[in-house]
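Quick start: what a row looks like.
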Amino acid sequence: MVNLKFFRKEDLPEVSYTLDKDQAQYTYTADQALKRIKERNDLQAFPVTIFQDDRPAGFFVLDFGEDKFDLTDNQNAVLLRSLSVNPDLQGKGVGKSAMLKIDDFIRENFKDCDEIVLAVNHNNMAAYDLYIKTGYKYEGRSRMGRNGPQYLMYKKL
């Protein structure tokens, strides 16, 4: 069973997996995302661990900072970033289950949040398909990201 919890330092060893070259060009690892949060002293970024049967299986960040305004005008939105699943557990529904549980996780922990926004690289069709299957919308808006054009997607809560 998949569940979500705010990241704790003791989760780090199991979310410090290595992504393959293709995935690494599209998302930060947990180590990279946590380093970025620390360097920026970012109090509006909340790292989250994905658990599969009580073991850390993946990671993402909920970012309420200014970066979200590149994707939305909504003050109450959150930017989902740095999503990854341990390569040993990919293809087993962990990512999909996590994406379906994120809505309730946000409602429980961030009561004012009413929208999730994200950007996904045009070449990252596996991620794009995952987001579409879990209720995210793409309405033709794109931007240039660090590794090429990105679809701008959202989901209303």
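That is the whole record. The mean pLDDT is 95. The helical segments are 12-15, 21-24, 30-40, 94-109, 125-133.
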